[in-house]
Amino acid sequence: MSDIVVSARSVSKIFGNGPEQVRALDDVSVDICQNEFFTMLGPSGCGKTTLLRLIGGFEQATSGDILLEGQVLNDLPPYKRPINTVFQSYALFPHLTVRQNITFGLEMKGMPRREANGRADEMLDLVQLAPYGDRMPSQLSGGQQQRIALARALAPAPRVLLLDEPLSALDLKLRKEMQIELKRLQTETGITFVFVTHDQEEALAMSDRIAVMQAGKILQIGSPRDIYESPTHRFVADFIGESNFLHGEVRQTDGGAAVLTLAGGREIALAAMPVSGPRDNVTISIRPERLALYARNDQKDGLTGTIRDIVYFGTDTTYHIDLGPSGTDARLTVRVQNREGEGREFERGAQVGVTVPVDAIRVLAD
Amino acid sequence: MGNLIRSKRFWLIAPAVLYIGFFMAVPLGQMAYVSILERGDYGAVNWGVFSFDAYASFLFERDLMDNLMFNTDYLQIFARSFGLSAMTMVFALVLGFPTAFYISMQPQARRNFLIFLVTIPFWTNILVRNYAWMLLLRNGGLIDNGLAWLGYESGGLDILYTPYAVSIGLTYTYLPFMVLPIYASLEKLDHRLIEAAFDLGADKWRAMTRVILPLAAPGIAAGCILVFIPCLGAYVTPELLGGGKFMMIANLIGSQFGAARNWPFGAALGFVLLAFVLLSMMIYAMKFKSLPEEKL
Amino acid sequence: MKIDTSNPLWRFRGITPMAMFFFAYLYLPILVLIVLSFNENRLATIWTGFSTDWYRVALSNDDMLRAAKNSLVIAVSATVIATTAATLAALGMARQRFRGETGVAAMLVLPLLVPEIVTAIATLLFFVAIGVQLGLISVIAAHTVFCIPFAYLPIRARLDGMDPALAEAANDLYANEWQAFRRVTFPLLWPGIMSGAMLSFIISLDDFVISYFVGGAGATTLPIYIFGMIRMGITPEVNAVSALMLIISIVFVSISFLIDRIRY
């Protein structure tokens, strides 16, 4: 994770002109390292595919630079970049056999046919489709086509492999298999993978680092654990997994500890004063599985509320809690794992207390 | 403009567009111009001498004393053309809608084949198609003989060279243009909408008139235009099946470039026909946000 | 619609008989013509026995063969020019939209909108005005105009159905623009081009009205010749020639449709 392979420097991309202008990327900078499985995650329209296409050379940035190993690529057409792409639709050439698809890039680079065919066989082995070289793409299943698209893009041994939502057309089971397969291929080939997806689970499962994007900007870059456990933005906390959001004022108590005061006057202790210091309008996020419920039996401090809804999910049960008198907007979702002999101890309408571990609270930037 | 010249797309598109522009758009413009020129003494036109005689001669005729006389000959030809075209359109709709509906309910492979069958006659020579009807309709032809066999008097059919024959031939010629657009809109129709109509108590008649027909309206309108317009400009059918006795607009236009040698009048007629075509296209485009041809 | 036709729910009274009548109406004349073309009798519509004599008579008619040769020269020339222009135009029109696209698209299909008789006389007036001698060249020029949209539409349809990522994938795999066109776009477009060319060819071969007006004496095409024969009367020779034309058209359209159905 040391040498930087691909960088974007203050890249902006504007589509269209006049009043129909769309700013797809807004001053984005990112460094992607050697040997990394790097994922760009975000909802559709967030600019992740645009950034990928800029790296691939299919679009030109309106401003800013794309660099490969320190060299500016901006005006280089795709066919002069040592970067290959796995397209969302796979884009296998329908008039060529599987082997001809794989050797296409090698031949274009001037490799003799015999050598190219040998390389194709290696790639077919790598994706475990050795017997399929002479088939036409239309004779393969979706999952097989996906593997051939991978083999074709990996065959010329690119410096970077770009993957544009390659798993979106597969069913759930196959998708899970391919996630493992992709990770294996990345480790075996040692090639940098830049992966685009809107599926947060996919991103968490495969990536070394994730860049979460929204509205043409990168909000947070970090390891899957960082992104999930320490989201810096409300959007990140909301988009990846489920989160509870609470708003209030952060104040310093007489004892020097930081406290968040909710609208109703309830107080939640924070581990430390946020960097920005005491202020109004602070949002914190707490993952539902980090909360716990206890039967309320006295006027103890802390959060109390009424169970509004109980949803049973098999592996766990989700409780929706109204904090304080109903009608206020403060609500919490608590997820409790179902274990043998437990559960069902709370009923709808019951008064409960909620335990909030201090280390589960994240103060968000916006 | 500099950008345009440098762009690859400009050079790709230019040959076709310039070709059509030069050999079609310019001639059409020139035709409009000729229509307001004076007729030459020995046929052709007096270039640069303007006159609205061509348009006046729709309704008026100069007698020997050079007085304008009201003349309904051409009006009759227009009336006949519109009448025959309207009749053809109705026949085509009555035959075409059930057929399109029938095809849309067939399994996919069969549908493609039937649509192919509908289109084949369009690609065959129009003279040959009309000639085949001459064989069928003439006295002593197949239909006449069939009637004779049924006990009617042989040679009593007497339908060839009448407006009826023209109407049969026109319907035959332009029928595919009715079926294809209607089929296109029926094919896209979600059959669950019809099931919903049944579910809500509509019987078949009302499912047809309240759900299917309204949803097929763009196709039906396109079909009607695509039949009516070419009918209005039909040349071969009235010539062969009408025996040249029942002129329609196109024959009148044609004759101005033959025996009648009145080019400005021919150009004026052509311009009126063209204006009518473009007008109906525009009305359709405004109502349905597409051209009727896009339904083919 | 995707429905189960065996379900009585979907049986609408009168639809099937009407459709049957339709197809009978559509094909009866064609069948009758073909059958009568094999009739040995001099009287064109009375069946007396099978014979291919009238084909022999027709095919040894020198005037008709000359007309057929004219038709062929015109159709091939118009097809080559029109298909080339249409292919380029389709490549230029596909993908991204541009300002004025609607106007350009309308121009490309203009020849389909204008009634034939109007095209015919406007072209005639134009050629006379600019002093072009009426003959084979003028007919080829006029045919090319209406062949362009017939070639353009299937090619464009094919391009629109093509995944834009395919050309990008070729670029991505180190093929430059020309290589990507030659190795990927063109092979995939080829059936559309062939289909468009064949449609142009028959539409030109079959054209009567436009050739009739802009042909002049030197460019008698087969349809013009047949028109003359029909005017003279119904004869078994006309039956044979007509049936031949019919069959050629049907064969060409069928091939064109089969090619257009090629999917990889």
Describe it for me?
The complex is a heterotrimer of chains A (366), B (296) and C (264). Chain A is α+β, with helices and mostly antiparallel strands and 366 residues long. Helix content of chain A is 23%, strand content 34%. In chain A, the strands form four sheets. Chain A has a six-stranded mixed sheet with strand order 6-7-8-3-9-10, with helices on both faces. A five-stranded antiparallel sheet of chain A has the order 13-12-11-14-20. Chain B has 296 residues and is mainly α. Chain B is 68% helix and 5% strand. In chain B, strand 1 (37-39) and strand 2 form a beta hairpin. In chain B, helix 4 (73-104) packs antiparallel against helix 11 and helix 11 (217-232) packs antiparallel against helix 14. The two termini of chain B are 35 Å apart. Chain C is an all-alpha fold. Chain C has helices spanning 15-36, 53-59, 62-93, 101-113, 116-130, 136-160, 164-172, 177-206, 209-214, 222-232, 236-260. Chain C is globular. Chains in contact: A-C, B-C. At the B-C interface, helix 2, helix 4, helix 5, helix 6 and helix 8 of B face helix 1, helix 3, helix 4, helix 5 and helix 6 of C.
Strand content of chain B: 5-15%
Spatial extent as radius of gyration of chain B: 24 Å
Beta-strand segment tally of chain B:
4
- Assembly state of the chains shown: heterotrimer
In spatial order, strands of the major sheet of chain A run: 6-7-8-3-9-10
First-to-last CA distance of chain A: 30 Å
CATH superfamily of chain B: MetI-like
Share of helix of chain B, binned: 55-70%
Number of helices of chain B: 14
Please identify the structural class of chain A as seen in this structure.
alpha+beta
- Largest sheet, spatial ordering of strands of chain B: 1-2
List the keywords.
heterotrimer; B: 296 residues; mainly alpha; MetI-like fold; two-stranded antiparallel ribbon; 14 helices; C: 264 residues; 11 helices
Please give a quick description of this structure.
Chain A has helices at residues 48-56, 98-108, 113-126, 142-154, 172-189, 200-206, 224-229, 234-239; strands spanning 4-15, 22-33, 37-41, 63-68, 71-72, 83-86, 160-164, 192-197, 209-214, 217-222, 244-252, 258-262, 267-269, 279-286, 292-295, 303-312, 316-323, 331-337, 351-355, 362-363. Chain A is of the alpha+beta class.
